[in-house]
Write a structure and sequence with these properties.
- By secondary structure, the protein is of the alpha/beta class.
- It is 37% helix and 12% strand.
- The protein has 11 helices and 8 strands.
- It has helices at 32-44, 68-72, 89-101, 120-127, 129-137, 157-165, 207-216, 226-240, 242-249, 259-269, 281-293; strands at residues 10-11, 16-17, 50-56, 77-82, 105-108, 145-150, 183-186, 191-195.
- Residues 1-26 and 170-175 have low confidence and may be disordered.
Amino acid sequence: MIMSNKNFKKNSKKNEPAKTDTQNQIVQWFPGHMAKTRRLIKESLPFVDLVTEIVDARIPLSSSNPELSEMIGNKPRIVLLNKCDVADEKATKQWVEYYKSKGIYALPVDCRSGKSLNAYLPLVREILKDKIQKNTEKGMVGKPLRVMVVGIPNTGKSSFINKMAGRNRAKVADKPGVTRSNSWFAVGNGIELLDTPGVLWPKFDDPKVGDRLAFIGSVKDEILDSETLALKLINVLKTDYSERLTERFKITDFTDKEDYEILEMIGRKRGFLISGGEIDFERASVILLDEYRAGKLGKLTLEYPREYE
């Protein structure tokens, strides 16, 4: 995972970003409110019937809290593969099958537009049909089904609750870490949602996981070096989605091209020049990251189930 690195400078000879060794760098990001959230999740679990986790369909496991499975134990779980509209459809289908093989229900959705969310409440009731039957037998017809909603920052948890509640009750922002306290929302059909603040785990042991989280914006940009991050994203894109770089930036030849050369080409294509006709690498980096996050590079998935089999 990349951390802000003051040694990342332009090479005066070639006007290229200097190379840095970030392979062994691990980001530590566990603010006090996140420790509190983990405690609140554990304390609230006995009072909910099901857990819904929101992940980013482009990086489902990298955007999933690895502590969650241990915390929730045998509670039924639904994984919402959010932002499926900007993920590779074939890859998303593979992820649905992957979760199914693990005994977990997975539903591709887009929480901003509401795509496929009409299938969510029926799925909850189907999963909890035995619970509903037991409540009926005990004379508690209509007892609310309680669902905890969890997810790391910037995966769309607040957008999901807003859509389900039918009113703009949860804060939504394009920055991680907005929701800071637990809140309940009645969403109809006898179901209540418990919102929890987005929480990351204490550290990212795998640098690739940290990179992917940074790509989608789940790690605050202020602690990262945008140029180093952009180069890492280019390295991924030129291998798996070179055609998208061609479509977006009109770059056609990737043969023997270094990552910094591709970033330079992007800057030149966009006219990001500074004094002396040199490329403004920082501006080119920010644009690349912003356009990727906004889905302007097309439907891209950055990890596949085969990596975890």
